[in-house]
Amino acid sequence: MSDPSPALPRPGFPVSRQVLADHVYEALLEWLMDGRLEPGAAVSIDGMARELDVSPTPVREALARLEHTGMVRRVALKGYRVAPVFTREDFAELMEARLSIEPVNARLACERMTSEGLDALKQAVEDLKTAPRGGTFAEYRSYLEADERFHQLIAAQARNQFLLAAYNTLGGQIQRFRLFGGVGITDAEQAIAEHQAVLDAMSSGDPGKAAEAMINHVEKVRGRAMADAPED
Amino acid sequence: MSDPSPALPRPGFPVSRQVLADHVYEALLEWLMDGRLEPGAAVSIDGMARELDVSPTPVREALARLEHTGMVRRVALKGYRVAPVFTREDFAELMEARLSIEPVNARLACERMTSEGLDALKQAVEDLKTAPRGGTFAEYRSYLEADERFHQLIAAQARNQFLLAAYNTLGGQIQRFRLFGGVGITDAEQAIAEHQAVLDAMSSGDPGKAAEAMINHVEKVRGRAMADAPED
DNA sequence: GGTTCGTAAATCCTATAGGAAACAGGATTC
DNA sequence: GAATCCTGTTTCCTATAGGATTTACGAACC
Fold first, then answer.
1. H-type helices in B79-183, by residue range?
2. CA angle, residues A5, A11, A16, in degrees to nearest 5
3. Fewest CB within 10 A of the end CB: N or C in chain A?
């Protein structure tokens, strides 16, 4: 989401220190994305506190912050649960939402792109190409990370705090679906080509082409996932 | 915001009970929208706990949840502050984001509207017309409430949980701006006419017209606010 | 006068304790 | 056999206490 750099606390550089609740938040987020916390599983406050060797208070705070991401859900007096797996309909809604927001982001980012921003995008596509694509999670993790980073960068470079916030409410869900949607990496070559096409359109400086390329990409993602989806 | 009645627990009706943190959340939200908590003011955890006569723990949880709405901001080890007033640029970004999301909501809502939904929309416009529009906050409060409700209803009836979540991240900010943007109610008659136009387009069943009417409305809102904005 | 330092108060942050509710299991009753 | 009741355990929820950090403010110093 935001800057995850640990920013090692060098003496004399009082970098924004983190409190325990922040670390718990990061840990839970990582576990959610790792699959260590499976969809539907209960997330006990006391249990997590024992696991992480902290008191329940920071865990409570971290979970309260996580709730809005949609990754955990809370029921009063019953506790938190990891959000259930996506249904086919959830996925369709998510893609519809992406098609509403991401092309706009691409258009604006194209208009407002800096050379540094473009370099970062190129790097993300390059990482996509070189990332290992084995069958195990550890192997394609970096691939998914580069994918998410690409879209996140475009959202950030649209230079609109509200559109970025709106995208971020989707971003976590998108990444979660990439992991638990039941579909591995399919047709990576084609997906990479689509990312490259978006990048090329952005480089060309034509906002309309950038938006079109993004629409095409998201629609293709939807098509691939819908075709491969195991559940009915 | 919502009904604060204890909801006497009738047997067989396991109404979702609320915990203290929920009440604190509602109270803080109301105070933020009332202006009782002014932009930029510090929101002390201990202080709020004393004020509300609860312990700091639920206050801490409520503030953690409020953070994502953008209405309060947190700095580690320093506490929470009410988000500062909108700059002209913030406002421009917010309107840009609305123009990206709300027309899509209107289009989808038009396609998926139920008769009950349409009735609710009609009611909101009716409330806009009949709401008092005096100079004090208490007087135009119901006007603003109906305005927000109208847009919220459209977002809800687009029947897309992710677009609704995305709109909601904006909705609080929009409402906050209506209150603290420095502009009162200007040209209410014209604003009501725009809402009516959106409603008419939705009733006609033409999604394209609904989207256009919404674009027109948001652009007019931007124009009015930009013209009247006191700060530079 | 301006800066630095040190003390005191307020605040944040975490841990701990205990009450209240939910849950699981078995015994009792119809 | 099914439903109800009871009991022990787990978990959530809130309050309280105390350490750590920030902030305020005044004295000392250059």
1. 88-112, 115-130, 137-157, 161-180
2. 40
3. C
Would residue B35 be called left, alpha or beta, if left means φ above 0 and alpha means ψ between -120 and 50 degrees? left
Separation of CA B12 and C1' D6 in angstroms?
21
Helix (H, G, I), strand (E, B) or coil at A5: coil
Q: Is B115 on the interface with A (CB under 8 A)?
A: no
Determine if strand D comes within 7 Å of the CB of B19: yes
- DSSP label at residue B136: S
Q: Among A184, A199, A195, which Cα is nearest to A133's?
A: A184
Q: Tell me if B173 and A166 make a contact (CB, 8 A cut-off).
A: no
Beta bridge partners of residue A73, listed in sequence order:
A81
Give which of A75, A63, B39, B36 is closest to B48, Cα–Cα: B36
CA(A119)–C1'(C10) in Å?
A: 47
Higher pLDDT: A182 or B4? It is A182
Give the confidence band of A92 by pLDDT, cuts at 50, 70, 90. very high
> B101: distance to nearest CA of chain A, Å?
7
CA neighbor of A32 nearest in space, from A180, A182, A133: A180
**Nearest CB partner across the interface for A64, out of B61, B90, B160:** B61
Distance (Å, whole) CA B125 – CA B119: 10
Element (H, E) at A181: none
Helix H or strand E segment including B43: strand B42-43
CA distance B130 to chain A (A): 32
Task: Name the token pair of B148.
Answer: 């927000």
Judge: A166–B97 Cβ closer than 8 Å, yes or no.
Answer: yes
Chain A hits for B108, CB-CB cut-off 8 Å, are 96
> Can you tell me whether residue B55 is helix, strand or coil?
coil
Q: Which of B57, B97, B101 sits opposite A57 (nearest CB)?
A: B57
Q: Do A93 and B65 touch (CB under 8 A)?
A: no
Protein-covered nucleotides of chain D (CB closer than 7 Å) are 10-17, 21-23
| B91 phi and psi angles, rounded to 5 deg | -60, -40
User: pLDDT tens digits for B94-152?
Assistant: 999 999 999 999 999 999 999 999 999 999 999 999 998 877 767 788 899 999 999 99
* Facing B100 at nearest CB: one of A57, A65, A163: A163
- Label residue A40 left, alpha or beta by phi (over 0 means left) and psi (-120 to 50 means alpha): left
CA distance B152 to A92: 22
